[in-house]
Design brief:
- By secondary structure, the chain is an alpha/beta fold.
- The protein folds into two domains: 204 residues, 3-Layer(aba) Sandwich (Rossmann fold); 192 residues, Nucleotidyltransferase, domain 5.
- The protein contains 16 helices and 20 strands.
- The protein has an eight-stranded mixed β-sheet with strand order 5-6-7-4-8-9-3-10, sandwiched between helices. Strands 11-12-15-14-13-16 form a six-stranded mixed β-sheet.
């Protein structure tokens, strides 16, 4: 019996009960995705999944095995609302209630939010991410954070930080959710985990991992080109494609959010983004890593005689602040060829920007002149960089034209910048290889008709820099050859 209890893959389907779709109490036979997670999870886990795949139940069962068989366990479940948290706790109650009597650890008290097992000295707590009084003072061994993408964004980070610090390295944290836009805590955690920036194991379960997501075929089945490709790559059957067609008809573009097929476009939502999801998906085949030189990413090296423009968005250089970004466009091909991006102090950024401009055939540089942009402009002017964009304006008082160095972003110019970049991407005129550009653009939304909203957890620095570059390109003659020889030499620096 002891050996059986230690083998959770034996214990769960043999002893734990669930309610099936026909409202029957049945043994918990593990779906492929549930078994895969339990077999492969670590002490820190992030799960991105389609809707209603039973992953919350699987996590509850995995934790229940420990709660019912080990001593000194402290388990906590937190979801986006109280009702869902109570539902997940009811799974634990059902698991316990339907165990064989000789395997049931004693419960001396319980409520809608707490269970205590005195013989094992174990406790189970639940709470809501909306609560103002989550008890994070306890040391926890098992933490399940559910539907984190739905947590209130401003509070989510603080709550996650507090909870995660209560779990020792030997404990287990599992974060799971369906996607909900390319911004917020869950997106950041998944992206960081995927890149190896945080010590979390990352799991992605597309909708076809659920064996229930199938529909019977009513008529002769003919797959489209896209469907044939999916069937070939993922070994899908026509019944699964029938399910896909139904959900696509019901949900439109939200299908890719609710029933993700990959972990790229599942974050896209036409409800929140300036960029239509179809535009973003059309750019995925072009995505490239590029050649890295420190903070500089090069997708296409400079072509002799070709003319380039550089749009620049400058930040303070703080590690956790906005990024300073310079985006380089080939004005003839409208190709986004290089990007300088990092948390770089303005004076150092100006030096790197100078060398970038020289490198790309003395490109015209348009620096957004707000805030730290003034420092960058001053240094470029002191170094006598010859091609700095000057903003032309009309002085109503002096009744004359004025000219100042730098690009002026305002309530008047911002909507034009955004709509022009979106139009270039929709028409597939802009050739871009940048994944980060898509990440930023998909998080932006219109707030009213004139104001662009960027969520607190997202960035728009590359988006702004490229928007400025596009505006400069529209004002720059497209000539193939630059006849005058350069008097500047490119000084190789660390970008």
């Amino acid at each position: 019996m002891v050996d059986e209890l230690r083998d959770r893959l034996y214990y769960i389907p043999k002893y734990l009960k669930v309610i099936d779709k026909d409202s029957n109490l049945v043994p918990m036979l593990l779906y492929p995705c549930q078994e895969h997670y339990i077999k492969n999870r670590g002490d820190r886990n992030i799960i991105l999944k389609a809707r209603q795949m039973g992953m919350s139940t699987a996590i509850a069962a995995d934790n229940a095995f420990d709660i019912f068989t080990l001593m000194f366990q402290r388990m906590c479940i937190i979801t986006h609302d109280t009702e869902t948290s109570e539902f997940l706790l009811s799974n634990i109650h059902r698991f316990h209630r339907n165990l064989p009597k000789d395997m049931q650890p004693e419960i001396d008290w319980s409520s809608s939010s707490r269970i205590r097992l005195p013989q094992l000295d174990n406790y189970i707590y639940i709470d809501s991410a909306k609560s103002d009084s989550i008890g994070v003072g306890h040391t926890l061994n098992r933490v399940h954070l559910s539907e984190v993408a739905r947590w209130y964004d401003k509070k989510a980070r603080m709550l996650f930080a507090e909870i995660s610090q209560t779990v020792p390295l030997s404990g287990r944290i599992t974060v799971e959710s369906t996607p909900r836009g390319r911004a917020g805590l869950f997106y950041e955690l998944y992206s960081s985990g995927k890149k190896g920036e945080i010590p979390y194991k990352v799991f992605f379960y597309p909708w076809w991992w659920d064996p229930n997501y199938r529909l019977p075929l009513e008529n002769k089945f003919e797959a489209t080109k896209e469907e044939k490709l999916l069937m070939e790559i993922y070994h899908l059957v026509p019944e699964q494609i029938a399910f896909r067609r139904l959900k696509q008809a019901e949900l439109g573009d939200l299908f890719y959010q609710e029933y993700p097929e990959n972990d790229l476009d599942c974050w896209l939502s036409s409800e929140i983004a300036i960029l239509d999801p179809s535009i973003i998906r059309s750019y995925y085949p072009r995505i490239q890593e590029g050649k890295q030189e420190g903070n500089l990413t090069i997708w296409k090296d400079v072509v002799g005689g070709r003319k380039y423009v550089i749009g620049v968005d400058t930040a303070a250089g703080y590690e956790r602040g906005d990024y300073s970004v310079a985006s380089v466009i080939d004005i003839r091909t409208l190709e986004y060829v290089a990007r300088l991006r990092g948390h770089i102090p303005p004076d150092l950024f100006a030096e790197q920007l100078y060398n970038l401009g020289v490198r790309y055939n003395m490109a015209e540089i348009g620096v957004e002149r707000q805030a730290h942009g003034h420092t960058v402009l001053r240094i470029l002017l002191e170094k006598d960089y010859p091609h700095i964009y000057y903003h032309l304006d009309y002085d109503d008082i002096k009744k004359s034209n004025t000219s100042e160095p730098g690009w002026k972003t305002s309530m008047k110019t911002k909507p034009t910048m955004v709509t022009d970049l979106v139009a270039a991407m929709r028409a597939n005129d802009l050739i871009s290889y940048s994944q980060n550009l898509l990440d930023e653009g998909s998080a932006l939304s219109w707030e009213g008709q004139q104001k662009v909203y960027c969520p607190p957890s997202a960035y728009d620095d590359e988006w702004d820099a490229l928007s400025i570059a596009l505006q400069l390109r529209e004002q720059t003659p497209i000539i193939e050859d630059i006849k005058a020889p350069h008097v500047f030499s490119y000084a190789k620096t660390i970008f």
